Task: structure prediction
Amino acid sequence: MSHTGTDRATGRADTGGAAVEVTGLTKVFGKGAAVITAADGIDLTVPAGQIVALTGRSGSGKSTLLHLLGAIERADSGSVRVGDTEVTALRTRRLAAYRRTVGFVFQRFHLLPALTVIDNVLAPVLPRRAGFDHHARARELLEAVGLADREKAHPAQLSGGQQQRVALARALIAAPRLLLADEPTGALDSATGTAVMDLIVRLGRAHGTTVLIATHEDHVADACDRVIGLRDGRTVADSAGG
Ligand SMILES: Nc1ncnc2c1ncn2[C@@H]1O[C@H](COP(=O)(O)OP(=O)(O)O)[C@@H](O)[C@H]1O
Ligand SMILES: [Mg+2]
Result:
């Protein structure tokens, strides 16, 4: 792994986005007659800083691809390289360290109900050093998502759109080089979803983060640099011509 001269653990410096290189990526679920090939030899190159929509109907493999990129699931074969990290070759401790360099936003926010907004944003970095720098960055991020005045609120006091904006701030707290969003607007009404999507794109661009967003909503895909279509675990369309 190259040394960038920045302290990624504190999230103080943005290192920019990581390029993503996927080769022959395969993931199979189940056994025998019930076997499902959720990723079927996917080849994909995403330049650093690109904002990519992954489209395709339910069951086409969008979530599986994101989980493989974020090392939430382990591939059966093929490789995932993110920046200069060969993700598919990592084991245990280094795998956990890699996961901390990836930001995730899910359809259903997954905020911790007992924690305040700012503590939710800080949660990914709390096990390390909850220093002043983290608090300052958390406040900056809450400001960026328009929730500076709600830092002491609890998730249940917020609307769905506000909760997703907290989730976005949390995903960015550790200055990830890769941001993965799985149907981030799927639980929101369309105006709120559009606002959340605009924020993801704006913050992704501001930090140079590479972003992949699974969606089946056209307006979400339209906001991205590139649209990749999946079907049956394979890429079947790519607006970049790949
Ligand atoms: N943990 C799992 N166990 C069994 N099958 C799974 C699992 N995760 C996903 N699948 C199957 O893999 C295929 C792709 O699923 P998924 O990646 O969730 O698609 P999408 O996100 O596009 O809806 C589907 O057929 C789904 O049922
Ligand atoms: Mg999915």
In short: Residues 190-207 form the longest helix (18 residues). Residues 1-14 have pLDDT under 50 and may be disordered. The radius of gyration is 17 Å.
